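step=encode ok
step=design start
structure_in=
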């Protein structure tokens, strides 16, 4: 039987829960199963049976937010990362449905992620549909329903779990915020170059070239 996850001791009210989730729109919070009781199996069931991607925080299912252009931008970046990672056999790059259990009963789905082979048991691809691991790099592409509080909550989950680098891509502002901890951040504009730091040493990408994908036409 799946283990039931209850709210942590810091959550007593609906307001507490919303703050933990980052004040996300209510229509992204699933009420079946009842908030506070959802499990990793519920995440998997929704994904396989209904095609709905949900993260799991405090026993609550939170629908993943990603629009058409955001998805296209994530796919473009995924291709660039694979072109760098695969020839060097550095590890695995996953996309917007790469579901990961960062810690017990804490599931996040970065829009793009890179995981070094050293983090994977036996240096092999996981066989679980929701593997227990934290990527080295997590990338979030902002959509309209993402809130600043939600992004802060994600970082507060990512870094304690072992993520080393977070790229927060804002298509509206055409900026990339590079985090090396929950608060240590550098903002890059279109005149700047994004690099992989020690996580992906040698990888570089013009921020202008990244966002130029949004302007590409037939």
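sequence_out=
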């Amino acid at each position: 039987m799946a283990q039931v996850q209850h709210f942590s001791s810091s959550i007593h009210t609906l307001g507490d829960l919303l703050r933990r989730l980052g004040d996300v729109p209510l229509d992204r919070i699933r009420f079946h199963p009842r908030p506070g009781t959802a499990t990793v199996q519920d995440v998997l069931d929704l994904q396989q049976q209904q095609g709905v991607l949900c993260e799991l925080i405090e026993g609550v299912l939170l629908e993943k937010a990603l629009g058409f252009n955001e998805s296209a931008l994530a796919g473009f970046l995924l291709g660039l990362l694979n072109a760098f990672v695969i020839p060097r056999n550095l590890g695995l790059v996953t996309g917007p449905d790469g579901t990961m259990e960062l810690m017990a009963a804490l599931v996040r789905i970065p829009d793009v992620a890179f995981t070094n082979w050293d983090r994977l048991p036996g240096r092999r691809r996981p066989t679980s549909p929701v593997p227990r691991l934290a990527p080295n790099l997590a990338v979030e592409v902002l959509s309209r329903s993402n809130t600043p509080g939600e992004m802060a909550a994600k970082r507060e989950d990512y870094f304690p779990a072992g993520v080393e680098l977070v790229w927060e891509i804002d298509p509206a502002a055409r900026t990339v915020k590079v985090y090396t901890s929950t608060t240590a951040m550098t903002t890059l504009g279109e005149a700047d170059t994004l690099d992989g730091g020690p996580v992906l040493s040698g990888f570089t990408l013009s921020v202008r070239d990244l966002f130029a994908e949004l302007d590409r036409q037939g």
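step=design ok
step=annotate ok -> The helical segments are 14-21, 40-50, 68-88, 148-161, 207-212.
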